[in-house]
TrEMBL record:
Coiled-coil residue spans: none
InterPro entries in the record: ArsP_2 (IPR021552)
Protein name per Swiss-Prot or TrEMBL: Manganese transporter
TM helices/strands, residue ranges: 21-40, 52-70, 90-115, 121-141, 148-168, 203-223, 235-253, 283-300, 321-343, 374-396
Species name: Vibrio ostreae
Keywords: Membrane, Transmembrane, Transmembrane helix
Keyword rRNA-binding carried by entry: no
NCBIfam families: arsenic_eff (NF037962)
Pfam families per UniProt: ArsP_2
Keyword Membrane appears in the UniProt entry: yes
Amino acid sequence: MFSIRWPSALTDSLRSGAAPLGYKRLLLPIALTMLVLSPNTRELAITTLSDSFWAVSTYVALTLAIYHYLSRWINSTHRFVVAFQRSRHLQVIIASLLGALPGCGGAIVVTTQFVNGRLGFGSLVAVLTATMGDAAFLLLASRPLTGLGVIAIGIVTGCITGLVVNTLHGDDFMRPKNTQAAQQPPANTHTALNHRAINLQGIFWQWAIIPASLVAFAQSFQIDVNTRLGLPAHSIEWLGASLAVTAMVLWALTREIDSYQSAVSENEKVRQAHPLQKAAQDTNFVSAWVIIAFLIFELMRHFTGWEMSNDWQQWEVWMPAVGIIVGMLPGCGPQILITSFYLAGSVPLSTQLANAISNDGDALFPAIALAPKAALFATIYTSIPAIVVGYGYFWLFEI
């Protein structure tokens, strides 16, 4: 399915010193290994890594695989882009629908179309309001009904916000005069080691997705897989932890960290790549931030005894504001942290809703690069409906 050479190419690169100090992501699998080796944190680390792999990564991979397979055959983005030319109000509606697509692809399309002069500022605000970025995959995989509800709220809010902005500003509001930069494709900065690690990610999930899904489904139905398969106690937990660390090693080698964007945004994907290859890249990116969030939560409880879920009620009026502030940070990584905390019960749904409306995902990076003033104003505008939705839900259902 993936035409590459098996891991010898990767090990040869590592032996020859081809992995430079820029691969700061390796700190994560190294830290995970240390937590597993330490007797004081071994049980916590094994449980957390196992749960993150079986209960989160596997479902995210399955959701992403289905999504990318469907995207391969139903290229609705191009049809929507053609329809953009009909009316500025229809642009807002379609931009909201594109923003609602899990991931950042639809939002990035609208952002570049705005910079190129084909869409209005209202469409830019609408797509950034509606998008959840990669956090949508995590929420859909873990709590599908809640995920669909949050996405639906994002679409409606994006449409309303975009239409209001259309009445306040013209289509060219904050559009940069020089748009030549938008025509230049991004340079491919992947090294040979990056390509090998990316391909190995695809192979990893090609072989793991079906058996891992069976284990995940069994655990969801409270079936003791160790007992059913006649395995020693905790075998599945150790296997899940080992697979999680392996996935993180591969993820760490797919990209060097040389900027804030390279740390918090998803990896670039080849458009013609196999759907499982794209799913693998997104899955490991989401999994890395989920593991970080889960470990922050568990280690804090382990060493201090502090339960975030018990204490947020004392600060409940500020929780939607936390979601909004984090949502204003570019990139999908911080937003996945908020969603992970919500799934763990550490923050309320009002925080998740406020973050979903406020967050602009990776689409904010091209906006900052190509139209920084428009990006600033759009971020401010998306925070306004985030306040309304987040605090509206808080006052109606959580107080």
